[in-house]
Structure formats: structure tokens, C-alpha cells
Amino acid sequence: MDKHEAKPLWECGECGEIHDDEDGARECCMPRVYEMYGCPVCDSVHDDEDAALKCCGPQGIIRCPSCARDYSQAAINHWAVVVAGHCNTCNPFFSVADQFSIEDLYLERSPYGDQSLLR
């Protein structure tokens, strides 16, 4: 390169750092990707695989953290614990939004959820 020619440089669009090559500028502040794990039962997201597997317990059993009762996916209380963090046996009060979410999850994912009730 001649000293009378301008040297091409590239600026990172995120942090403004100047790079000698275009690839360096593109890769400078690339978005970070984090690996997460989803519970196979309720699809809630966890940071590690063990937490995802323990979320709803073995074979889809979940324990209410308030009263320690166990519920299978076939019970609407299972989905109450997933959504609201408690079952309706120990605390029968839910927000309207939580109640709708609980009922929707039960109908969608429970092995006994009856879609014909919606027709």
C-alpha cells in the first residue's frame, strides 16, 4: 500500500471499535447465544438440563411447593402449579389470566384434556 492511499478500515456497528478487516468488525460484537433447556412437560425454560428435567418431575409429576401434594399431568392442579406456583387445594385463588392459562394448558397438554368441551 502506498503512503498516499487511504487505508480501508471498518467500524463495529455496536461498540464503534475500528478494525483492519471487515470480518473483524462483523464479528466484534456479534450477539451472544445462550444454551437453555426446556422442561419436556410444561415447556418452561431453565438454565441447565437438570433443572429442566426436575421441573415437573419424573413421568410428568409435579409437587406443589406450598402444600407438597403431587399431581400428574392428568390433573388440572398440575397446570395450576406450573402457571401460578400453587394448586387450588392449598390456595383456590388465581388471577383471571392465570385461570385461563391453567385451563388452556390442561386442555392442550393433559392426556385427558377434552377438546370437545370447547365446541
From TrEMBL:
Top-level taxon of origin: Bacteria
Name of the protein this chain belongs to: Uncharacterized protein
Organism per entry: Bowmanella yangjiangensis
